[in-house]
Amino acid sequence: MDNQAVLDFQAYMLETTGDRIDSADVVLGELTLSCTPDNIISVLRFLRDDVQSRFVSLIDICGVDYPERKKRFDVVYHLLSPTQNQRIRIRVQTDAQTPVPSVVEVYPGADWFEREAYDLYGILFTGHPDLRRLLTDYGFEGHPLRKDFPLTGFTEVRYDDEQKRVVYEPVNLRQEFRNFDFLSPWEGTDYVLPGDEKAEPKAN
């Protein structure tokens, strides 16, 4: 899609939905709209039904975490219009306590996308028919794609042969931290590396 068509559609959206969107910017060759959670259903319904838009295909809903912000999460909707041969993204900001309206009534395919955003980021959606975890295990603690989630997690799962069942335990780092030397690789180390002890000694 050429840049002029994107700019024309940007002007069209500002004219028709300017009271419902906070901004309309062209980012990486695609139009990006920002709106509040209160307006997301109205904006998406317009994009789906308007004859100049016809964004009938929901490609993805994803979360983005900015922990330094007061509203730390972006919920990003990616839409496709096969009729207009255009893509568009819509962003909504929220925090861990403020829910975003579910858009399942507009795009039924949003069901699992919203469950994934809830599971991995803890983003809440009101009006969702079945908002529960999708990818993590039963009883999982926390939301693994948040920037402040520890890389090791909180629990580990293993099969206990004596108990003949799966057990959950707190994470136990069994390997001691390795010692690294930061000598220049061009100068080399002052000790023999494992595997080099059989090499012929260098002539002095």
* Total helical elements: 3
Helix content: 10-25%
Rounded to the nearest angstrom, the distance between the terminal CA atoms is 67 Å
- Structural class, from secondary structure content? alpha/beta
In CATH, the topology of the domain at 3-136 is named Beta Polymerase, domain 2
Anisotropy-based shape: extended
CATH class of the domain at 3-136: Alpha Beta
Q: Widest sheet: strand order?
A: 1-2-5-4-3
Name the average pLDDT. Answer: 88
CATH superfamily of the domain at 3-136: NADH:ubiquinone oxidoreductase Nqo5 subunit
Topology pattern, helix = H, strand = E: HEEHEEEEHEEE
Low-confidence stretches: none
Describe the protein.
The protein is α/β, with parallel strands linked by helices and 204 residues long. It has a domain at 3-136: NADH:ubiquinone oxidoreductase Nqo5 subunit (Beta Polymerase, domain 2), CATH 3.30.460. Helix content is 18%, strand content 26%. The chain contains three helices and nine strands; from the N terminus they run αββαββββαβββ. The protein has helices at 3-17, 40-49, 110-121; strands at residues 23-27, 30-35, 57-65, 73-81, 86-94, 100-101, 125-126, 155-160, 165-170. Strands 1-2-5-4-3 form a five-stranded mixed sheet. The protein has a two-stranded parallel sheet with strand order 6-7. The longest helix has 15 residues, at 3-17. The N and C termini lie far apart (67 Å). The relative contact order is 0.10.
Strand-helix topology:
Blueprint: H1 3-17, E1 23-27, E2 30-35, H2 40-49, E3 57-65, E4 73-81, E5 86-94, E6 100-101, H3 110-121, E7 125-126, E8 155-160, E9 165-170
Parallel strand pairs: 2-5, 6-7
Antiparallel strand pairs: 1-2, 3-4, 4-5, 8-9
